[in-house]
Amino acid sequence: MTETMDKATSRRGPTGKQTTFGGLVLAFLIALYTYAQPILNERMGWNLPAMPKTGSTEVAESKTATKTVSQPKSAEPSTKAASTPPKTSSETKPKPNPTVGKQDAPASKVKPTIKPAPASDPNLLYGLLKDLGDERYLSPAGLLFTRGGAEGHRLDHLERHTADDPQRPGKHGVFDGGMEGALATIDRAYERALTGAKTTKEVEDGRTIYTVDMGSRVGYIGGGDGNLENKPMARRVKMVLDKDRVITAYPL
Amino acid sequence: MAMAPKHSIDYCPICGGGLCGIRICGMTDDKPHGLIVCDECEAIWTEPDSTADHHYPDAEDACCPICEKPLWGPQSRWATWDDCSELGWLDAIDPQLDIRSDEGFV
């Protein structure tokens, strides 16, 4: 019996130590990768895959992050339904692009750094914009979204920058987080622009064009060129304003 | 794709992100005229040359600088190939900037 145990111990001994050492090295490498992956994605604009998560809490978080990026129409908060943005287009509305959802897939690999504004006040459009009447909406930072543009309303134009348009020539900036994320990012960019932090400003004939470096990912570059480059991340925001009225805003 | 220009002459030199699309206006009164309009910042040129002087329309009530009718009204649209031909602006088109699946051209 004792001899048998000794043999078993001697068999397990060296092999067990190797297994333990190898396991420690593997665990260390996994931990290192898990720690470095989001940082490298953030700073280098890579799309390194995240380690598969275990545990119900983490899975739930992962699903939430994916929803935040993709923003399917059915998942939009009730605040939009409570106060539907104006549709005053004078031209024919484009048909929904069936490739939009699929084209967003690569971007969903990277957890967005923006946090859409909580839809706490049902009276605010997209949880952020105060309705001033006459189709005018005011953001917390003081930006106005009014009628205008080919789509009929600036918010409808902004919506174009919440989904990719792969057929568009050149680059097409796409905000993370749907309309809520876009509006929150634009407001932060405007606040930063007013302080002059990491901002270039051009003023001409009543129009002000801000290019604001947000310091971290705010979206990605889609369009024809962006798709050729595997949709690189965007960390800057371009805003074209007429005084405090938004003409357009998009990531670049 | 109705909101994007069918044919463009350049990327916008003002905002950098828009397309300088060719637009035809005045279709309802038999006085068609062409415009170049950036589909992002709405800078307008009255000739197919984005280095020429440009205008900005009113932010909420944009009008054509030539006929002063609504820039996005029913008498105006993004120009088709035939429209560009009628305007005599075919040579200004940059085919690399054409939206795909246009009216057979490309």
Give a quick rundown of the structure.
Chain A has 252 residues and is an alpha+beta fold.
Strand order of the largest sheet of chain A: 5-6-9-10
N to C succession of SSEs of chain B: EEEEEH
* Secondary-structure element series of chain A: HHHHHEEEHEHEEEHEEE
Average pLDDT of chain A works out at 73
The tally of strands of chain A reads: 10
Gap between N and C termini of chain A: 73 Å
Walkthrough of the structure:
The complex is a heterodimer of chains A (252) and B (106). Chain A has 252 residues and is of the alpha+beta class. In chain A, 40% of the residues lie in helices and 18% in strands. In chain A, a hairpin with a 2-residue loop joins strand 9 and strand 10. By secondary structure, chain B is mainly beta. Chain B has one domain. Chain B is 7% helix and 20% strand. In chain B, strands 1, 2, 3, 4 and 5 form a five-stranded antiparallel beta sheet that branches. In chain B, a hairpin with a 7-residue loop joins strand 1 and strand 2. Chain B is globular. The interface between A and B is medium-sized, with 34 and 32 residues.
